[in-house]
Amino acid sequence: MYYVDDYTNIPKINEQFKKITDDINSSFIENRDEIKCCRDINYYIDLVNAIVKSTDILPKRIQDNLISHVEQKWKEVPKVKHIDECKGKIDLDSIRKRCILKHLHDLKMDKDPINSSSEKYKTYMSEKWDKLIGYTKPYYGGLYVKIENDSMGIIDLYDHLLHSTDYICDDGLDNLSSDDITISTDMDSLINTISLDKISTNDNNRECYNKTYINMLKRKTSAIQRVNNFLSIGIALLGFTLILIFLYKFSPLGSLLRRFSKKKIEIDGNMSEEEMSELYENSENGRQYISYNSVSQ
What we know:
Layout: H1 11-31, H2 34-54, H3 60-72, H4 83-86, H5 92-109, H6 111-116, H7 118-136, E1 144-149, E2 152-157, H8 158-162, E3 181-184, H9 187-192, H10 211-250, H11 252-296
Antiparallel strand pairs: 1-2, 1-3
Helix pairs in contact: 1-2, 2-3, 2-5, 2-7, 5-7, 10-11
């Protein structure tokens, strides 16, 4: 099979990349937002990776060369000051986290379109994320996401999160980073990573704490409370035992108890000697009585 090696002359790719570059340029000129520009660039690079690597038609050499050609187009995007730092890693977890961060920021920016035509926006989100979800989601089992900082607490399925308009978070989003996102195939492992120190007292932005996160938080709090209760009981019993030992060893009451115990032991010992003597005497008398009867017969 013949493949084109001159990737700079692939019209479809160049046409699409020109459109992407124009979108990024216009957005950057309008907002002067380098961080948003980085998010947009990474989104398109990740999308190209997903499309190219998901195909079974092209061999790996062609895929790698094609992606390399697209990455060279970085020089055509706006002159972002820290462009090398902006470029993200291409492992699946890094791509997933970038998708989540972009989605949350886009929801905040698109608040008005979402409120005015939510169904159209959901269709737009499907077109926007389906290729990347298909590339980054495991073939079997669910993939769970925990997002947590001082103003947010969300636990959801990865694909459901990227299709949802529920998380329009105004507070704390600017401080959200990939370090605040945990991804796992095991829901229980996410519970262990919930931080009780990050719970916000701000009630004005409760949409950024979803029901699943709150339930898991209650579950973890209850488990910690049970452990604390057992520890409290154990400490109380230990303290009570130590007090008794101290009283017995060093207090007047302890001396009285020791004298009483000693006297009781002596009395019990004397009683035992008397009982043994009586038993012995009874035993001797019994033998004499039996012997007397034997003679009379």
